[in-house]
Backbone:
């Protein structure tokens, strides 16, 4: 009771020209993220969350349901995209009429709730939202833990479908970037192991991207090789892509953690090209000894970094089944020699050594930015649930928040100064707009702050989305 009385008292600030300055939280239907309407505009055209809801089966009593699975999913994913990473946030967010509109609630004011105590609260609280995280957990025979059930294989397939639909015509070539990253853990989560390289307890999720498009986000324990499970994921993704685009050239790209016989042999047998980093060893370094000496002499003469390349065939002593093309980079920097190697199935006629390394392989660094974007700004690392599968669900929620923002960037921000902006910048400049919401029988008015400094970009994004998603309206 004391907390309630305290929160209702006005906050007194410094006087302004002899007048008291008071503040409280009695403004009514005001939202902090009026720009979230742009995300709903994307969703209405692409139906990403609507199809995600179709991957779930609801076993709850229909007569006792106030919040459908589709509404719960939308509420959770939109909240992540708007900057609210924790389920606990929803105990206050459930009052937000704009979030209710984004989630597809017809009653965005909560005036028609079944229970008197819920009147004025249109959305679900943390306990109800939390049930979604258990959708792939527990015993299916136990209704307490399995009232909402998801089909993981359909979620995996949807991620690839969204990518395929983003292209009006099949591309001639696509590059699939594979990478593993650390997801540090600070509790006793299921599947928690210490990883020596990252020097912490963590998960080791596997990501597969094609450009900005996220195709796979698979949570894994960290007591495995970085490449573990990659072949299974590539089989699934490449098979789905080729059913739609049978003639597309597929190139798989990754760091030295993926230069494994199993992956390369599978690629060769399936007509998939690859370019992987290759861990250096004395044999490889001797192979580019002449080029390293040339680079050293050039550095001494110019005092500028120097690099030369050598293209050669190479086979390990026992782990590889055949010889493969390797490109060695002999580089000398101020710190000394910096040899690097890559292994590839691509022929010299397709890529000469320097172009293969500098233009194709080094471009994989952009994928690391996408992973960082999802982990830092869309909270993919908030895997604090006790159960491993519940944390996989959290990773998927973050992934679909990324899909929405990425589609907004691809379709809406093209040609604007924010065309390559990261999720955090998009949120700060386009979503984080104060707005007053008024509701009548015929309209929902969202009156955005008149002082918003990015009004012109907002209007440009709206126009771009209309042209891309709703051409008939335009």
Residues:
């Amino acid at each position: 009771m004391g907390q309630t009385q305290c929160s209702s008292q006005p906050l007194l600030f410094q006087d302004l020209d002899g007048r008291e300055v008071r503040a409280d939280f009695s403004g009514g239907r005001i939202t902090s993220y009026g720009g979230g309407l742009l995300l709903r505009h994307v969703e209405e055209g692409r139906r990403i969350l609507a199809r995600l809801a179709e991957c779930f089966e609801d076993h709850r009593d229909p007569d006792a349901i106030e919040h459908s699975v589709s509404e719960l999913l939308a509420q959770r994913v939109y909240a992540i995209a708007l900057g609210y990473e924790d389920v606990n946030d929803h105990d206050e967010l459930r009052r937000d009429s704009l979030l209710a509109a984004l989630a597809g609630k017809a009653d965005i004011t909560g005036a028609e709730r079944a229970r008197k105590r819920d009147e004025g609260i249109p959305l679900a609280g943390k306990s109800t939202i939390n049930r979604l995280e258990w959708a792939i957990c527990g015993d299916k025979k136990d209704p307490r833990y399995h009232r909402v059930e998801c089909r993981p294989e359909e979620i995996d397939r949807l991620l690839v479908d969204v990518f395929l639909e983003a292209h009006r015509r099949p591309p001639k070539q696509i590059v699939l970037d594979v990478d593993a990253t650390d997801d540090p853990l600070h509790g006793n989560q299921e599947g928690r192991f210490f990883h020596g390289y990252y020097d912490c307890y963590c998960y080791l999720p596997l990501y597969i991207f094609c450009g900005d498009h996220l195709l796979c986000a698979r949570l894994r324990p960290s007591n495995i090789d970085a490449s573990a499970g990659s072949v299974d994921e590539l089989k699934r993704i490449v098979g789905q892509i080729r059913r739609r685009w049978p003639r597309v050239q597929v190139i798989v790209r990754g760091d030295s953690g993926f230069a494994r016989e199993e992956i390369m042999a599978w690629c060769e047998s399936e007509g998939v090209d690859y370019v992987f980093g290759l861990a250096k060893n004395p044999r490889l370094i001797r192979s580019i000894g002449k080029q390293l000496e040339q680079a050293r002499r050039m550095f001494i003469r110019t005092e500028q970094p120097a690099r030369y390349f050598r293209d050669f065939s190479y086979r390990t002593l026992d782990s590889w089944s055949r010889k493969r093309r390797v490109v060695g980079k002999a580089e000398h920097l101020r710190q000394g020699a910096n040899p690097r190697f890559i292994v590839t199935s691509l022929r010299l006629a397709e890529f000469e050594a320097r172009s293969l390394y500098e233009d194709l392989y080094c471009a994989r660094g952009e994928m690391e930015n996408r992973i960082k974007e999802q982990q830092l700004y869309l909270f993919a690392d908030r895997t604090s649930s006790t159960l491993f599968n519940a944390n996989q669900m959290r990773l998927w929620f973050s992934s679909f928040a990324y899909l929405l923002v990425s589609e907004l960037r691809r379709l809406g921000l093209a040609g604007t100064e924010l065309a390559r902006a990261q999720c955090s910048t998009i949120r700060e400049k386009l979503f984080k707009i104060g707005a007053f919401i008024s509701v009548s029988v015929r309209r929902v008015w969202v009156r955005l702050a008149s002082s918003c400094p990015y009004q012109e970009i907002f209007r440009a994004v709206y126009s771009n989305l209309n042209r891309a998603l709703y051409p008939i309206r335009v």
